[in-house]
Amino acid sequence: MTEATQFLRRRQLLAGSAGALATAGLAGLAGPAGAQTPAPATAPAATGPRPLPPYAAWKDASAMIVHSSNTIETRRAAFGTSVITPAEQLYVRNNLPPPDASVLADRDAWQVAIEGVRNPRTVTVAELKTMGIETVAMVLQCSGNGRGYFPSKPSGTPWQVGAAGCVIWSGVPVRYVAEALGGVSPGMFYLTGTGGEKLPAGVDPLSLLVERSVNIAAMTDAILAWEMNGAPISLAHGGPLRLVVPGYNGVNNIKYVKRVAFTAAESPAKIHNTGYRMTPPGAQSKPSEPSIQELNVKSFVTGPAGDRTVRAGTVYVTGVAFSGGPAIRRIEVSSDGGKTWLEAAFVGPDLGRFAWRQFAIALRMAPGSYVLASRAIDASGATQPEQRIENAHGYSNNSWLDHAVKVAVA
What we know:
Helix content: under 10%
Distance between the termini: 17 Å
Strand order of the largest sheet: 5-4-13-8-9
Strand content: 25-35%
Order of helices and strands: EEEEEHEEHEHEEEEEHEEEEEEEE
CATH superfamily of the domain at 87-273: Oxidoreductase, molybdopterin-binding domain
Largest sheet: 5 strands, mixed
Low-confidence stretches: 1-41
CATH architecture of the domain at 87-273: Alpha-Beta Complex
Shape: globular
Number of strands: 21
């Protein structure tokens, strides 16, 4: 096999703020690439097309894989080359059915209780809008994204790469709300959010309540958001109000938030106390195990997506890379399943440390079979690993090998 070579020319990224547009260019690259090793096992998509549920019927059905009424995945080929994921193509993961759409009838009237401050009280969205405004671009990713690649086939949705997206939230910083209500009370160590889904009658609320606690340090970046991608948040994504915690896994970003509390102890709700834990294979989850909190360093190729044969010649390989906060410093791409690596270029605007970075590299690819993989390194030195961490529930899979894609070139 002849090692692929490349020549990449970068154009300077236009400087700007996190919300500013920027441009970047790629030059043509040359170099032969031979037939490659077989691709890693690929998890099957949902069998047969399923209709979008009514609350998400406005989404682009051609871009989505509907696993169930509460789990809808973005197809790898649908990510495209724009940094922001359109709402119509963003995945959906609900732990409970969403509330009735009537909660959106008067968005400004939605109420959220603020507790653990010197002057606790319930405030409306209308009041929140008088306390400040901030906009943040961030990766939203389900904790189980990549579960479909676990050979142990853990229970839960067999997500591949599509339970993730990069979106822009607008709302009031949680720290502003706390300041407006006299500041956080002494002795509080956690920021706890509670969802407003309707619970079935006759059950212990703690067994189903969507409530999560994160370290109080997360308050620095957390916002109470009422807009996503410049529009009021849809019911599918947590409207009228969502607690957004940048850098954290999706479950910690509470939809239909009705309570934000600064607490001395973590939530006793099952979803937090024993749910979303890094549990060893075959074991029962317990509170002493690591909780699913910050995102880990990760990347994956978005194109070619492996869904069709690629024409031989210059092929642009694109993808995205992100972490829980440290900036992505380097991205490498392999066309031979990880035997050799080449540095790719960042393209598009840098929307801040919580957003993902797009990357691209052009390879000269001869007819044959290729395994495209990407590997990210962040500013802290964390490197995306080759292998997943085996666990009972299929969480936090950032294995570059699992996320590699087999591409046929003719």
